[in-house]
Amino acid sequence: MTNGKKCLNMLNSKTDMEWIDGFLRQELSESEVATFQERLAKEPAFAALFEEQELILNGIRLHQLSDKVRHFQQMGQEMDGNLLDDGTIGEAVRYDRSSAVLERFREKGKEMDEKEELQQATKRGLISYIFSRYAAAAAVLLFLVSFWWANEYYSSQAIAKNSIEFPLSNESMKNPSKGNFNLGKKAFFNKDYEKALKILEEVPLENNDYFEAQVLLAYNLFEMKKYDESINQFNQLIDKDFESLPNIYKNENKLRWNRLVAYVGKNNLLSPIFQQELEFFLNSKSDFYRNKAIKLNKELNSTWRLIVIN
Amino acid sequence: MNTPNSYAIIIQQIRSGDMVVLDKVFTDNRNAFISQLVKKYQCPMEEAKDIYAVSVSIFYENILSGKLTRLTVKPLSYLLGVGQNLVSEWRRKQKDVPVDIEKVLIHHIAEEIPTDTYEQKLKLVIRKLEELGAACKAILELFYFERRSIPEITKLLDFANVDTTKSRKYKCNKRLKKLVNDQWQKMSKHA
Predict the structure, then answer these.
(1) For A79, which residue in chain B has the nearest alpha carbon?
(2) For chain A, what is the total number of helices (H) and then of strands (E)?
(3) What's chain B's average pLDDT?
(4) What is the pLDDT of residues B129-173, one digit of tens each?
(5) pTM value?
(6) Is the pLDDT of residue B70 over 60?
(7) Which residue has the higher pLDDT, A97 or A230?
(8) Which of B30, B125, B177 sits opposite A76 (nearest CB)?
(9) DSSP A81-107
(10) Phi, psi at residue B139, to the nearest 5°?
């Protein structure tokens, strides 16, 4: 190739390059763009040159943009160093951190949930186990307390003891007495029933205090839970000695009531005499004994007595 | 001041090469941009920062290329638009892959998903551009990226006249292409 041809090709090439540069720099008019596109379609060499030049252009763009991005990234890093606490970026950083933290917590939470479930299951099992054990223990304890309470307050002897109508000590002590009987009476009212029993049983018939001694003996036997003997004593007082009793003891209702109560103490609730006497007092004209009879009947029929050992 | 006139001045200043103004745009809008990208797009913080750097770079290129001649919205809104497009495009193409800034830039430049060959050639151009020498590199960058005219480049680089500039630009361009093509042929042979 001669130097002249080289120069011509270069000029032609430059011309093509000017077209291509014009197009790439968006400097061509609409008609020129149309012409340019027509050449691209018709002239493969021109199209190849264009592709080549477009690659160069894009490479330069990529190089420049990468430089700019690096520049701004560096600026950003400097800003982050200084401005982490500044409003929005701080908020964004916190938001991002909190998101990251939240995510970590979510992951952690999942693990914890699994562990928690296991622990809960174990805990539930343990609670259930403990509860069942303690519930059973509590039930047993409750039953024992109830059993104790029922027997303390609803056993036949407890009901009898709470229902007995003792002679009033002050009234009784007003009745003058001498010798051993007086000691026996004092022992009775001092609740020394063993001593009282020995003395009261020894009071001879000819003694003026004999009938009073028989009354106190009935109560004394009751207190000693010798219910059969107490009942017999009350029977004797009611049926035989009644007229001879000192006035302060001459109260038939009281003697009959206490005999009834002795039957309760004996737990002989099905005996005809008990049923008859209870009926009598339930229908008594005396409010006092009728109310006591109602109370006694209620206590004897209480459900608490289902767990009572008599 | 946040008025269309002030935006026009910003564009004019950046267009004329005032990098301080561009840096100010970057610093003024960074916090709000990142905050919104993190909150609205659930973008990880570090990705949001990188996307912002890319967005401002594209904003800059758009001003230089004449794509952006006037702003009808705040620079932040424009930048957010660029950033959101980049994130959306990336997610559309790459799904769950974390943002890769170099690839984001290549996708932006190629306007489509580039072939591996094209991507390699682009990277090769960058490498060879560095081998050209400062003067050649400056001419080509001023001409193709900053879209400076030949008289402007002549003035900026203190060349004798426009013809000299044209000639040097032509030679630099030709040399770069030769470097790229030669290297590409070597690489193709080895491959």
Answers:
(1) B27
(2) 13, 0
(3) 90
(4) 999 889 999 999 999 999 999 999 999 999 999 999 999 999 999
(5) 0.53
(6) yes
(7) A230
(8) B30
(9) HHHTTSHHHHHHHHHHHHHHHHHHHHH
(10) -60, -50
Contact between chains at B31 and A76 (C-beta distance less than 8 A)? no
Report DSSP letters for B61-108, one per residue: HHHHHTS-S--SS-HHHHHHHHHHHHHHHHHHHHTTSPP-HHHHHHHH
Residue from A6, A18, A63 whose CB has the most chain B CBs within 10 Å, to mutate: A63
- The predicted-structure confidence for A38-69, as pLDDT tens digits, reads as follows 999 999 999 999 999 999 999 999 999 999 99
Which tokens hold the place of A109?
Answer: 């939470």
- Which of B23, B39, B102 comes nearest A95 by C-beta? B39
**Rounded Cα gap, residues B65 and A63, in angstroms:** 15
Residue A80 clears pLDDT 90, i.e. is over it: no
pLDDT bracket for residue A270 (50, 70, 90): confident
Instruction: Look at A168 and A299; give whichever has higher pLDDT.
Output: A299
| The Cα angle at residue B28 between residues B25 and B31, in degrees rounded to 5 | 125
Residue of chain B whose Cα is closest to the Cα of A73: B53
Across the interface, whether the CB atoms of B126 and A62 are under 8 A apart is answered yes
Min Cα separation A101/chain B (Å): 12
Give per-residue burial for A135-165: e unless 16+ CB within 10 Å, then b: eeeeeeeeeeeeeeebbeebbbbbbbeebbb
* Contact at CB, B140 and A56, closer than 8 angstroms: yes
What is the spatial distance between Cα A308 and Cα A146, in angstroms, rounded to a whole number?
Answer: 10
pLDDT in tens, A132-179: 777 888 888 888 888 888 888 888 888 998 899 888 776 677 666 767
pLDDT(A5) > 50: no
A248's tokens: 């302060």
Interface of B with A in 22-51 (CB under 8 A): 23, 26-27, 30-32, 34-35, 38-39, 42, 44-45, 48-50
Buried-exposed string A204-232: b where 16+ CB fall within 10 A, e elsewhere: eeebebebbbbbbbbbbbbbeebbebbbe
CB contact under 8 A, B34 and A89: yes
